[in-house]
Amino acid sequence: MTIHGHTDPRLTGLRDALAAMVDSGEELGAAISVDLDGETLVDIWGGHADVARTRPWERDTIVNVWSTTKEVTALAVLLLVERGLVDLDAPVATYWPEFAANGKEGVLVRHVMSHTSGVSGWDQPFVLTDMYDRETATARLAAQAPWWEPGTASGYHAQNQGHLLGEIIRRTSGRTLTQLVAEEIAGPLGVDLQIGATERDDDRVAEIVPPPPLPMGLSQVPADSPMVRTFTGPVASAAAANTIPWRRAELGALNAHTNARALARTFSVISRGGAVDDVRLLSPGTIEQIFREQSRGVDLVLGVPLRFGIGFALPEPQTVPYIPDGRVCFWGGWGGSMTVMFPERSLTVSYVMNKMAPGIIGSDRAARYLTEVLDAVG
Known about the structure:
By secondary structure, the chain is α+β, with helices and mostly antiparallel strands. It has one domain (4-377): Beta-lactamase (3-Layer(aba) Sandwich), CATH 3.40.710.10. The protein is 31% helix and 16% strand. The chain is built from 12 helices and 14 strands. It has helices at residues 12-24, 69-82, 92-95, 109-113, 134-143, 161-173, 177-189, 226-231, 244-248, 260-271, 284-290, 364-377, and strands at 4-7, 29-36, 39-47, 63-64, 193-195, 256-258, 275-276, 279-280, 295-298, 305-308, 313-314, 329-332, 338-342, 347-353. The chain has a 6-stranded antiparallel sheet, sandwiched between helices. A 3-stranded antiparallel sheet has the order 4-6-5. Helix 2 crosses helix 7. The longest helix has 14 residues, at 69-82. It is globular, with a radius of gyration of 19 Å. The two termini are 27 Å apart. Residues 15-358 form the Beta-lactamase-related domain.
Protein backbone atom coordinates (compact mmCIF):
# COMPACT_ATOMS: atom_id res chain seq x y z
CA MET A 1 0.00 0.00 0.00
CA THR A 2 1.32 3.42 -0.95
CA ILE A 3 1.77 5.81 1.95
CA HIS A 4 1.40 9.43 0.90
CA GLY A 5 2.91 12.60 2.31
CA HIS A 6 6.22 13.83 3.68
CA THR A 7 8.70 11.86 5.79
CA ASP A 8 11.99 13.10 7.20
CA PRO A 9 14.76 10.63 6.26
CA ARG A 10 15.29 9.84 9.94
CA LEU A 11 11.74 8.52 10.16
CA THR A 12 11.45 6.15 7.22
CA GLY A 13 10.92 3.40 9.79
CA LEU A 14 7.70 5.10 10.86
CA ARG A 15 6.49 5.29 7.27
CA ASP A 16 7.35 1.61 6.79
CA ALA A 17 5.49 0.71 9.98
CA LEU A 18 2.33 2.44 8.79
CA ALA A 19 2.61 0.75 5.38
CA ALA A 20 2.99 -2.64 7.03
CA MET A 21 -0.03 -2.06 9.25
CA VAL A 22 -2.18 -1.06 6.27
CA ASP A 23 -0.93 -3.96 4.15
CA SER A 24 -1.65 -6.47 6.91
CA GLY A 25 -5.17 -5.16 7.49
CA GLU A 26 -4.39 -4.04 11.03
CA GLU A 27 -5.12 -0.54 9.78
CA LEU A 28 -7.88 0.36 7.34
CA GLY A 29 -6.92 4.02 7.03
CA ALA A 30 -4.72 6.21 9.19
CA ALA A 31 -2.60 9.33 9.39
CA ILE A 32 0.43 10.29 11.49
CA SER A 33 2.05 13.68 12.00
CA VAL A 34 5.20 14.65 13.90
CA ASP A 35 6.12 18.24 14.72
CA LEU A 36 9.58 19.09 16.06
CA ASP A 37 9.78 22.71 17.18
CA GLY A 38 7.63 23.89 14.30
CA GLU A 39 9.19 21.67 11.65
CA THR A 40 6.90 19.01 10.21
CA LEU A 41 9.08 15.90 10.26
CA VAL A 42 6.23 13.61 9.25
CA ASP A 43 2.85 14.18 7.64
CA ILE A 44 1.73 10.85 6.19
CA TRP A 45 -1.52 9.05 5.45
CA GLY A 46 -2.70 5.92 3.69
CA GLY A 47 -5.29 3.20 3.39
CA HIS A 48 -9.00 3.68 2.95
CA ALA A 49 -11.68 5.86 4.48
CA ASP A 50 -14.44 3.26 4.18
CA VAL A 51 -14.95 -0.43 4.86
CA ALA A 52 -15.79 -1.13 1.22
CA ARG A 53 -12.39 0.33 0.26
CA THR A 54 -13.91 2.56 -2.38
CA ARG A 55 -12.59 5.81 -0.87
CA PRO A 56 -8.86 6.26 -0.36
CA TRP A 57 -7.74 8.08 2.77
CA GLU A 58 -6.85 11.50 1.37
CA ARG A 59 -4.78 14.41 2.62
CA ASP A 60 -7.95 16.16 3.82
CA THR A 61 -9.76 13.12 5.26
CA ILE A 62 -11.06 13.75 8.76
CA VAL A 63 -12.22 11.22 11.33
CA ASN A 64 -13.97 11.06 14.68
CA VAL A 65 -11.13 10.87 17.21
CA TRP A 66 -13.14 9.83 20.27
CA SER A 67 -11.48 10.90 23.53
CA THR A 68 -8.62 12.67 21.84
CA THR A 69 -11.41 15.26 21.76
CA LYS A 70 -10.87 15.71 25.51
CA GLU A 71 -7.46 17.23 24.77
CA VAL A 72 -9.13 19.80 22.52
CA THR A 73 -11.72 20.65 25.18
CA ALA A 74 -9.03 20.91 27.85
CA LEU A 75 -7.08 23.31 25.65
CA ALA A 76 -10.21 25.43 25.24
CA VAL A 77 -10.61 25.66 29.02
CA LEU A 78 -6.92 26.50 29.46
CA LEU A 79 -7.41 29.32 26.97
CA LEU A 80 -10.04 30.78 29.30
CA VAL A 81 -7.75 30.22 32.29
CA GLU A 82 -5.09 32.15 30.40
CA ARG A 83 -7.50 35.04 29.89
CA GLY A 84 -8.61 35.12 33.50
CA LEU A 85 -12.17 33.99 32.76
CA VAL A 86 -11.82 30.65 34.54
CA ASP A 87 -10.00 29.87 37.80
CA LEU A 88 -8.98 26.22 38.16
CA ASP A 89 -9.33 26.49 41.94
CA ALA A 90 -12.85 27.93 41.83
CA PRO A 91 -15.90 25.79 42.53
CA VAL A 92 -17.72 24.87 39.33
CA ALA A 93 -20.80 26.42 40.94
CA THR A 94 -19.11 29.83 40.83
CA TYR A 95 -19.79 29.82 37.11
CA TRP A 96 -22.69 27.36 37.01
CA PRO A 97 -24.74 27.85 40.21
CA GLU A 98 -27.12 24.96 39.54
CA PHE A 99 -24.18 22.56 39.74
CA ALA A 100 -23.94 23.01 43.53
CA ALA A 101 -26.99 20.75 44.00
CA ASN A 102 -26.75 17.46 45.88
CA GLY A 103 -23.38 17.97 47.54
CA LYS A 104 -21.35 19.27 44.61
CA GLU A 105 -20.69 22.76 45.98
CA GLY A 106 -17.08 21.75 46.68
CA VAL A 107 -16.34 20.38 43.22
CA LEU A 108 -13.61 22.56 41.69
CA VAL A 109 -12.89 23.22 38.04
CA ARG A 110 -9.60 21.36 38.46
CA HIS A 111 -11.53 18.29 39.62
CA VAL A 112 -13.47 18.19 36.36
CA MET A 113 -10.27 18.78 34.37
CA SER A 114 -8.60 15.82 36.11
CA HIS A 115 -11.50 13.32 36.24
CA THR A 116 -11.73 13.60 40.02
CA SER A 117 -15.10 15.39 40.35
CA GLY A 118 -17.10 12.31 41.31
CA VAL A 119 -19.46 12.95 38.38
CA SER A 120 -18.17 10.56 35.72
CA GLY A 121 -21.45 9.75 33.98
CA TRP A 122 -25.20 10.20 34.06
CA ASP A 123 -27.61 8.65 36.52
CA GLN A 124 -29.97 6.17 34.90
CA PRO A 125 -32.15 6.24 32.92
CA PHE A 126 -29.98 7.82 30.26
CA VAL A 127 -29.29 6.60 26.72
CA LEU A 128 -26.63 7.62 24.24
CA THR A 129 -28.85 9.88 22.16
CA ASP A 130 -29.73 11.85 25.30
CA MET A 131 -26.21 13.28 25.10
CA TYR A 132 -27.10 15.10 21.90
CA ASP A 133 -29.45 17.47 23.76
CA ARG A 134 -26.78 19.57 25.46
CA GLU A 135 -29.15 21.65 27.57
CA THR A 136 -31.03 18.69 29.04
CA ALA A 137 -27.89 16.58 29.47
CA THR A 138 -26.04 19.31 31.38
CA ALA A 139 -29.09 19.99 33.55
CA ARG A 140 -29.14 16.31 34.47
CA LEU A 141 -25.49 16.46 35.53
CA ALA A 142 -26.10 19.60 37.60
CA ALA A 143 -28.83 17.83 39.56
CA GLN A 144 -26.85 14.67 40.37
CA ALA A 145 -24.98 13.75 43.52
CA PRO A 146 -21.30 12.76 43.12
CA TRP A 147 -20.58 9.04 43.00
CA TRP A 148 -17.48 9.37 45.23
CA GLU A 149 -15.88 12.13 47.29
CA PRO A 150 -14.65 14.78 44.85
CA GLY A 151 -10.90 15.26 44.68
CA THR A 152 -10.00 11.95 46.32
CA ALA A 153 -9.45 9.75 43.25
CA SER A 154 -9.82 9.77 39.49
CA GLY A 155 -12.73 8.09 37.78
CA TYR A 156 -12.51 8.62 34.05
CA HIS A 157 -15.26 10.97 32.82
CA ALA A 158 -15.57 8.89 29.67
CA GLN A 159 -18.52 10.49 27.92
CA ASN A 160 -19.59 13.48 30.00
CA GLN A 161 -16.43 15.53 30.58
CA GLY A 162 -17.17 17.58 27.49
CA HIS A 163 -20.64 18.46 28.76
CA LEU A 164 -19.24 19.55 32.13
CA LEU A 165 -16.39 21.62 30.71
CA GLY A 166 -18.51 22.83 27.82
CA GLU A 167 -21.03 24.31 30.22
CA ILE A 168 -18.25 26.08 32.15
CA ILE A 169 -17.04 27.47 28.81
CA ARG A 170 -20.53 28.61 27.85
CA ARG A 171 -21.17 30.30 31.20
CA THR A 172 -17.84 32.13 31.24
CA SER A 173 -17.28 33.01 27.59
CA GLY A 174 -20.81 33.28 26.23
CA ARG A 175 -19.86 30.84 23.49
CA THR A 176 -20.37 27.14 23.00
CA LEU A 177 -17.39 24.82 22.97
CA THR A 178 -17.91 24.36 19.23
CA GLN A 179 -17.76 28.11 18.67
CA LEU A 180 -14.76 28.65 20.93
CA VAL A 181 -12.73 25.91 19.23
CA ALA A 182 -13.59 27.29 15.79
CA GLU A 183 -12.94 30.93 16.62
CA GLU A 184 -10.03 30.78 19.06
CA ILE A 185 -8.13 27.59 18.20
CA ALA A 186 -8.83 26.18 14.73
CA GLY A 187 -9.22 29.57 13.05
CA PRO A 188 -6.09 31.31 14.37
CA LEU A 189 -3.94 28.20 13.90
CA GLY A 190 -5.37 27.43 10.46
CA VAL A 191 -6.10 23.80 11.32
CA ASP A 192 -8.78 21.38 10.15
CA LEU A 193 -10.38 20.76 13.54
CA GLN A 194 -13.98 20.94 14.70
CA ILE A 195 -16.23 19.62 17.43
CA GLY A 196 -18.70 17.43 15.55
CA ALA A 197 -18.77 17.76 11.78
CA THR A 198 -20.75 20.06 9.52
CA GLU A 199 -22.87 18.85 6.62
CA ARG A 200 -20.42 20.26 4.08
CA ASP A 201 -17.71 17.98 5.51
CA ASP A 202 -19.67 14.71 5.53
CA ASP A 203 -18.00 13.50 2.33
CA ARG A 204 -14.56 13.87 3.96
CA VAL A 205 -15.37 11.91 7.11
CA ALA A 206 -13.83 8.45 7.36
CA GLU A 207 -16.10 5.57 8.34
CA ILE A 208 -15.45 4.21 11.82
CA VAL A 209 -14.93 0.45 12.14
CA PRO A 210 -16.00 -0.63 15.66
CA PRO A 211 -13.57 -2.66 17.76
CA PRO A 212 -14.14 -6.06 19.35
CA PRO A 213 -16.30 -5.83 22.50
CA LEU A 214 -14.51 -4.42 25.52
CA PRO A 215 -13.48 -7.18 27.96
CA MET A 216 -14.77 -5.16 30.89
CA GLY A 217 -16.40 -8.02 32.80
CA LEU A 218 -18.92 -5.60 34.29
CA SER A 219 -21.09 -8.46 35.52
CA GLN A 220 -18.44 -9.14 38.16
CA VAL A 221 -18.40 -5.52 39.38
CA PRO A 222 -20.93 -4.09 41.86
CA ALA A 223 -23.76 -2.31 40.05
CA ASP A 224 -23.30 0.84 42.14
CA SER A 225 -19.57 1.16 41.37
CA PRO A 226 -18.35 4.17 39.37
CA MET A 227 -17.14 1.76 36.68
CA VAL A 228 -20.55 0.21 36.04
CA ARG A 229 -22.42 3.49 36.44
CA THR A 230 -20.11 5.26 33.98
CA PHE A 231 -20.15 2.58 31.29
CA THR A 232 -23.91 2.13 31.51
CA GLY A 233 -24.74 5.82 31.81
CA PRO A 234 -24.94 5.73 28.84
CA VAL A 235 -23.83 2.52 27.12
CA ALA A 236 -21.30 3.50 24.47
CA SER A 237 -21.72 2.67 20.79
CA ALA A 238 -18.85 2.93 18.32
CA ALA A 239 -21.28 2.61 15.41
CA ALA A 240 -23.03 5.80 16.53
CA ALA A 241 -20.06 7.80 15.23
CA ASN A 242 -21.13 6.95 11.68
CA THR A 243 -24.52 8.63 12.10
CA ILE A 244 -25.51 12.17 11.19
CA PRO A 245 -27.04 13.03 14.61
CA TRP A 246 -23.70 12.16 16.25
CA ARG A 247 -21.79 14.42 13.88
CA ARG A 248 -24.14 17.33 14.45
CA ALA A 249 -24.00 17.08 18.25
CA GLU A 250 -21.54 18.86 20.54
CA LEU A 251 -19.81 16.05 22.42
CA GLY A 252 -16.71 17.61 23.91
CA ALA A 253 -15.46 14.29 25.24
CA LEU A 254 -16.04 12.26 22.11
CA ASN A 255 -16.68 13.76 18.69
CA ALA A 256 -13.97 16.08 17.44
CA HIS A 257 -13.44 15.47 13.72
CA THR A 258 -9.94 16.19 12.53
CA ASN A 259 -6.72 14.67 11.21
CA ALA A 260 -3.23 14.04 12.53
CA ARG A 261 -1.76 17.14 10.89
CA ALA A 262 -4.23 19.43 12.63
CA LEU A 263 -3.77 17.76 16.00
CA ALA A 264 0.03 17.93 15.84
CA ARG A 265 -0.02 21.63 14.98
CA THR A 266 -2.66 22.40 17.60
CA PHE A 267 -0.92 20.62 20.46
CA SER A 268 2.52 21.83 19.49
CA VAL A 269 1.22 24.90 21.35
CA ILE A 270 1.96 22.93 24.53
CA SER A 271 5.26 21.47 23.30
CA ARG A 272 6.53 24.85 22.10
CA GLY A 273 5.85 27.04 25.11
CA GLY A 274 2.39 28.30 24.23
CA ALA A 275 2.82 29.74 20.74
CA VAL A 276 2.75 28.43 17.18
CA ASP A 277 4.34 30.72 14.63
CA ASP A 278 2.95 34.15 15.57
CA VAL A 279 -0.13 32.81 17.38
CA ARG A 280 0.17 32.67 21.17
CA LEU A 281 -2.57 30.79 23.00
CA LEU A 282 -0.99 30.03 26.38
CA SER A 283 1.72 31.38 28.65
CA PRO A 284 4.37 29.08 30.14
CA GLY A 285 2.66 29.48 33.52
CA THR A 286 -0.64 28.14 32.23
CA ILE A 287 1.13 25.25 30.51
CA GLU A 288 2.84 24.41 33.80
CA GLN A 289 -0.58 23.74 35.33
CA ILE A 290 -0.97 20.73 33.02
CA PHE A 291 1.96 18.98 34.69
CA ARG A 292 0.81 19.43 38.28
CA GLU A 293 -0.29 15.97 39.33
CA GLN A 294 -3.91 15.87 40.51
CA SER A 295 -4.33 12.14 40.98
CA ARG A 296 -2.29 8.96 40.99
CA GLY A 297 -3.60 5.44 41.47
CA VAL A 298 -6.06 2.93 40.11
CA ASP A 299 -8.76 4.83 38.24
CA LEU A 300 -12.21 4.05 39.64
CA VAL A 301 -13.74 3.75 36.16
CA LEU A 302 -11.01 2.25 33.99
CA GLY A 303 -9.60 0.01 36.72
CA VAL A 304 -5.94 0.62 35.82
CA PRO A 305 -3.25 2.87 37.32
CA LEU A 306 -3.35 6.38 35.88
CA ARG A 307 -1.90 9.80 36.62
CA PHE A 308 -3.78 12.93 35.67
CA GLY A 309 -2.58 16.50 35.57
CA ILE A 310 -4.85 19.33 34.45
CA GLY A 311 -6.67 18.26 31.31
CA PHE A 312 -4.17 15.59 30.29
CA ALA A 313 -2.71 12.31 31.51
CA LEU A 314 0.87 12.13 32.73
CA PRO A 315 3.21 9.15 32.21
CA GLU A 316 2.26 5.94 34.02
CA PRO A 317 4.54 3.08 32.97
CA GLN A 318 2.32 0.36 34.42
CA THR A 319 -0.49 1.26 32.02
CA VAL A 320 1.17 3.03 29.08
CA PRO A 321 4.75 1.69 29.08
CA TYR A 322 5.64 3.15 25.68
CA ILE A 323 5.21 6.74 26.89
CA PRO A 324 8.46 7.66 28.66
CA ASP A 325 8.61 9.24 32.08
CA GLY A 326 9.37 12.90 32.43
CA ARG A 327 7.63 16.12 31.46
CA VAL A 328 5.23 14.52 29.02
CA CYS A 329 1.46 14.83 28.67
CA PHE A 330 -0.98 12.94 26.49
CA TRP A 331 -4.34 11.38 25.96
CA GLY A 332 -6.00 9.38 23.25
CA GLY A 333 -9.25 8.00 21.99
CA TRP A 334 -11.14 4.74 22.12
CA GLY A 335 -9.60 2.50 19.49
CA GLY A 336 -6.13 4.01 19.50
CA SER A 337 -5.93 7.63 18.30
CA MET A 338 -3.44 9.59 20.37
CA THR A 339 -1.58 12.87 20.69
CA VAL A 340 1.54 13.10 22.88
CA MET A 341 3.44 16.24 23.82
CA PHE A 342 7.11 16.41 24.90
CA PRO A 343 7.80 20.06 25.88
CA GLU A 344 11.42 19.41 26.83
CA ARG A 345 12.03 18.17 23.29
CA SER A 346 9.57 20.57 21.56
CA LEU A 347 8.10 17.38 20.07
CA THR A 348 4.46 16.57 19.28
CA VAL A 349 3.23 13.26 17.85
CA SER A 350 -0.30 12.60 16.64
CA TYR A 351 -1.97 9.51 15.18
CA VAL A 352 -5.54 8.97 14.01
CA MET A 353 -7.25 6.01 12.38
CA ASN A 354 -10.68 4.63 11.52
CA LYS A 355 -10.30 0.92 12.33
CA MET A 356 -10.58 0.84 16.10
CA ALA A 357 -8.24 -1.42 18.07
CA PRO A 358 -9.30 -3.20 21.27
CA GLY A 359 -9.10 -1.21 24.48
CA ILE A 360 -9.59 2.37 25.57
CA ILE A 361 -6.09 3.75 26.19
CA GLY A 362 -3.78 3.60 23.18
CA SER A 363 -3.13 0.46 21.17
CA ASP A 364 -0.31 -1.76 19.98
CA ARG A 365 -0.31 0.25 16.76
CA ALA A 366 0.01 3.56 18.59
CA ALA A 367 2.84 2.07 20.66
CA ARG A 368 4.68 0.95 17.54
CA TYR A 369 4.43 4.35 15.87
CA LEU A 370 5.44 6.34 18.94
CA THR A 371 8.39 4.03 19.58
CA GLU A 372 9.58 4.56 16.00
CA VAL A 373 9.48 8.33 16.53
CA LEU A 374 11.28 8.29 19.86
CA ASP A 375 13.95 5.88 18.62
CA ALA A 376 14.67 8.21 15.71
CA VAL A 377 14.44 11.70 17.17
CA GLY A 378 13.67 11.34 20.87
